[in-house]
Amino acid sequence: MKEEKKATRQSYGEALLELGRKNKNIVVLDADLSGATKTDLFAKEFPERFFDMGISEQDMMSTAAGLSTCGKIPYVSTFAVFAAGRAYDQVRNSICYPKLNVKICATHAGVTVGEDGATHQMLEDLALMRTLPNMTVLSTSDDTQTKWAIEEISKIKGPVYLRLARLATPIIYEENEKFEIGKAIQIGEGTEATIFATGITVSEAIKAQEELKEEGINVRVVDVHTIKPIDKEMIIKCAKETKKLISVEDHSIIGGLGSAISEVLTEKYPTKLTRMGIKDTFGKSGKAQELVEYFGISAKSIIDEIKKEG
Amino acid sequence: MKITDISELKEKAKEIRKGIIEEVYSASSGHPGGSLSIADILTVLYFNQMNVNEKDPKWEDRDRLVLSKGHASPALYSTLANRGFFPIEELKTFRSLKGRLQGHPDMKNIPGVDMTTGSLGQGLSAANGMAIAGKLDNKNYRVYCILGDGEIEEGQVWEAAMTSSKYKLDNLCVIVDNNNLQIDGEVSNVMSPYPIDKKFQEFGFKIICIDGHNIQEIIDAFDVAKNIKGQPVCIIAKTIKGKGISYMENQVGWHGKAPNEEQYNEAVEELGGAK
C-alpha cells in the first residue's frame, strides 16, 4: 500500500475520459453532480456525448436505457443514494429486466461521504443492486482497480453497478495490475484470520493486517471487488485455511458483503463469520475518518475484533 | 406494406381489435379498455407511418415505438402480429406460462417490441434516449411514444418532457391517449393532469389535438409532426376507452377485466364476426 491517496470517484473520472477517447459509443449521463462525480472531465472533451439530465435521476436511468437499445454504452453517474435508491424502479424495470447495457457508476457511497450526513450516505445499495437479476455489482478499492474496472465493464454486455467513494484512500495496487471480474484478490497468506473487505475498507483491513503482523499475528485480507457474482471458491478456501472470518464494509451489515459471504458459507461450508459494517442504523454527519472509527469499520476496530476470544 | 386507403385501414383496425379481444379472453385477464382506445393509432402507425421490417425486427434504421402505457400490451401484440412480426395464432398464448407474450411488453423475447415497459412513467425517458441516439448517429428514424392520460400523473413523465425539449427532439412524437379514465375513475377526478395540451406546450412541445379514432386525422397529425423542426411534438388524441365494443365503451370497469364467453361472442360479432 502506498502513501499516495486518491478517491475512486477521481479515478473514475480520469478512466472514463480515457475510455471515451477509445470508444465512441461511450456516452455519459449525470444528474447535476458532474463536478462531484468527476464526469466533468469527460464532459469537457466530449460535450456532444455528455448529457446533464438535471436533478432527475429517474429520467436519467430510463434515458440511458433507451440510448443503450441503440448501441450506445451509457455510463450513468450520480450519488449512490440517488442511483440505487431514488431510481431503483427505473434500474429494475427499464435496465435490468431487459438486460440493457447500462453502466451505473455511483459515487459517494457509505458513511465516508462525511459531513452531508444520513440522507446522502448510501448504506443499502449493495443489498438493493445485488438482488436484481442480470446485474453485475462491483465495489472497487483503489485507483488502479477502479481504472481497470471502468474499461472492463464496457466489455460486459449487460447492466453493471459500480460503487465508488468520495473519500481519498491509499493506492493499493501497482499500476496496470490485472484483475478479473468475479475473482477476489487475496493479500497475504496469514491463517489466523481472513478479513473480507470491499471498497474503502480494503485499505483499513491492510492497515490492520500490517499492525497485527508486528505483533506476530498473521492474517490475510481478501479484496472482494466483485460483490456479484461473488467469488465462492475464495470464500470456501479461506474458510478452510483460516481460523477466523470477518467481513468489513462501509455498508449496512444487512444485505451487503457480509450477507453475500454468509450465503455462500451457509450452503457450502458452514462457518462462523463476524460481519462488521453499519449495524442497521442510518449514518451521521462528521468527518469521514471520524465516522469510520465511530461506526466501527476502521483498522483499529478490525484489530480489536481479531484479538477477541472465540 | 404501407396502406393508404382509409377504409382498408379501418378494416385493419377491426382485425387488431379482434386480436385484443382474443388475447384477453384467452388469458382471462389483461387490459382491454386502454388497448381498444389506442387501436386506431397503432393501426395508422404500423400500417401507414412507421418504417419497420417484420423480417428484421432489430433493424437499426427502423422507426421505434415505446408503449409507455405498457398494460395496453394486447393492442401492441395484436398490431405486431397483424403486421407479420409473429403469428396471429400466437395471440392466444397471451399471459400464459408456455408463451412469450408477457403481461407487459418484453423487448427481449417478443419480436417488434422496441422497449420493455409496464412500470408507468418510464417510457418517454427511454424514447428520448432512442431519439438522442438517432441524432448522435445522424440517423433519420423517428421515435413514437404512447402515454396514457392517467400515466402522466407520474412525475418522471415531466422530467422526461424537459429532456425532450432540452435536446430539441424533433425526431420524437408523443401521443397521449386521452380516454379520461383510469382504474379508480375519471382522470379529471382521481388526479387531474388537465390541461394536458397547455402543460406539454409549456414544456416545449408542439401540440396537435385530434380525434384518436378518426383515421384521416391521425394520419394528418403524424404527417404534420414529421415536418416540425427544432422541437418535439405531442399529439393529444381524444379517445374512448373500450372503443369498438359497445358494452365496454367509456366503462371504467373494463380497464383490466376479461370478457366471459357470452361477452366474447358478442364482441366478436360487433367486430364483424370471426375471420
In short:
The complex is a heterodimer of chains A (310) and B (275). Chain A has 310 residues and is α/β, with parallel strands linked by helices.
What this model shows, in words?
The complex is a heterodimer of chains A (310) and B (275). Chain A has 310 residues and is α/β, with parallel strands linked by helices. Chain A has 13 helices and 14 strands. Chain A has two domains: 5-170, Thiamin diphosphate (ThDP)-binding fold, Pyr/PP domains (Rossmann fold); 185-307, Rossmann fold. Chain A has helices at 8-22, 34-37, 40-45, 57-69, 80-86, 88-96, 125-130, 143-152, 201-214, 232-241, 257-268, 288-294, 299-307, and strands at 5-7, 26-30, 50-52, 73-79, 103-107, 136-139, 160-163, 168-170, 185-187, 193-197, 219-223, 226-228, 245-252, 274-278. Chain A has a seven-stranded mixed sheet with strand order 3-2-4-5-7-6-12, with helices on both faces. A five-stranded mixed sheet of chain A has the order 9-11-10-13-14, sandwiched between helices. Chain A has a two-stranded antiparallel ribbon with strand order 1-8. In chain A, helix 1 (8-22) packs parallel to helix 8 (143-152), helix 9 crosses helix 13 and helix 10 packs across helix 11 (257-268). Chain B is of the alpha/beta class. Chain B has a single domain (6-270), classed as 3-Layer(aba) Sandwich (Rossmann fold). Helix content of chain B is 39%, strand content 12%. Chain B has ten helices and seven strands. Chain B has helices spanning 6-27, 32-36, 39-49, 73-82, 123-136, 155-166, 187-190, 196-202, 215-226, 261-270; strands spanning 64-67, 143-148, 172-178, 181-182, 185-186, 206-211, 233-238. In chain B, the strands form two sheets. Chain B has a five-stranded parallel sheet, sandwiched between helices. Chain B has a two-stranded antiparallel ribbon with strand order 4-5. In chain B, helix 1 packs antiparallel against helix 10 (261-270) and helix 3 packs parallel to helix 4 (73-82). Chain B is globular, with a radius of gyration of 17 Å. In chain B, 55% of the residues are buried.
